[in-house]
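In practice, a research group might receive sequence data for several interacting partners and want a quick structural hypothesis before committing to experiments. The following worked case mirrors that situation: the sequences arrive first, and a predicted assembly follows.
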Amino acid sequence: MSAAPDGSVSAGVMPAPEPSLASAERRESWRHFLALLPALLLLAALFVYPLLGIVNRSVYKAGYTLESYRQIFRVPVYLHVLGGTFKISALVTLVCLALGYPLAYVLATCRPRTARLLMIIVVLPFFTSIIVRTYAWMVLLGRNGIVNQYLTALGLTDKPLGLLYNQGGVLIGMAYVLLPYMVLTIYSVMLGIDPSLIRAAHSLGASRLQAFRRVFLPLSLPGIAGGTLLVFILSLGFFMGGPGDMMIAMLIEREVEITLNWSFASALAVVLLALTLVGFLGYNRIVRLERIFEGRA
Amino acid sequence: MALAGAVLLFLIAPVVIIIIVSFSGADYLKFPPPFLSLRWYERFFGVPSWRQSIIVSTQVAGLTMVLATVLGLLASLALVRGRFRGKGAIYAFLLSPMIVPTIITAIGLYFFFVRLKATGSIVAMALGHTVLALPVVVIIMAATLQGFDIRFEQAALSLGASRFTALRRITLPLIFPGLLSAALFAFLTSFDELLIPLFLSGVEVQTLTVRVWNSLVLEVDPTIAAVSSFLIGVTTAVLGVSALLRGRREAARA
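A structural hypothesis for the assembly, expressed as tokens:
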């Protein structure tokens, strides 16, 4: 197989001429098709087919019916979960934007060497398992957690505070996981802003604040829009939440594993999927998803 | 500036604190630990059921890595080099598992494998994770291949090498750093993922993440701090090696 070219084939001698250019091109595209096939087959069998299965299950329950969808939008408990998920997602997105924009700004404007170092701090949690990050916050905020230990030791409280299983705890945990997405999206847009535009603003007499507000901020708007949309979509599908603030993803898991109501779980999944896809179509018009990964891998 | 510093602290503090308390000698998680010990690591590596889940996670992630890297490499070669219609659509399709919430992919696979009576198998979990890891490999390999000068391969072909020889002797060695880092990220994607094994694992075959999840519901067991630090260590190793590889790639290009 690995016959190396020996002396009899001198450099510059082309392999046997192809019968015709058209057939060579056909063979080339045939090869590319074969190379794509395994990946496409895998996704068709283990991604598209199961998703279609969910859609089917959501409308089929001993005959086709929209009963499950009606249930989602009629039963107050489920509407509450849906509304709660939206509310939490909006809050998380705001927190991430407020924390993420200043950090992205510092990363984009400091020296490249420093930026690379600080980037490690953003990327390490980004690639750490979500379960580890969740556990870390349980250790910090739990009833006997570290924060409560300090509060009690300082005499600020007599009995441990319930910091974890409430909206505040869920908010912190989610913002922690999703913040890197916001930072990386805004940062990738900020890197594309030409610094000479800011210098031009300064030379025309703009103050630092003015140059930021009138030039830099408007140019970074696509990053804000993209990051906001991305974090919001990811929040909607986020697998977390306390007993009081159940999120859609948690409810789906419970319906599958505990209640065993698969057609209702499927209907919920379809609703979540539809919301997510609409959001991503918007995101993709602003920032390309793979930009977050590129340069960091 | 100060706000950015505070945000960085917010990002890194939980990770650092978990690593520190995992070396605590106390019975419960106290920070700073009153004295240091390796007792939670001894429990983690000593108890057979924990050891078993390290093995399961490694098997699932290893199989995922091989499948996703091979399929992703082939697909990226076609996408970067081919000239055919619908290329953008195929690329978007290959990345789509990143977009769909994992809970949905997970229950889809659960319904699918339940019907085949194949839940609780390493292969089923690895196949599910390959779906998630494929986009990661495709993104990294597409970027790598775009930076690869195809004339090297053409030169080999014109000197009489077969396609396979040219790929094996010329292209693969040159793109190896990118390929290795794609493989490592595929491994990590699987090793860290909770939801697919949560649905697909059985009572006996559990990945590390599922075991952590199950013990979180009960209590905050300090052993989990050791497990978490181990997972953070794996992530750090993958990021470190891929940063080294990137440095080498950039040095080679300059």
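Before designing any experiment, note the following. Chain A is about 70% helix and 0% strand. Residues 1-14 of chain A have pLDDT under 50 and may be disordered.
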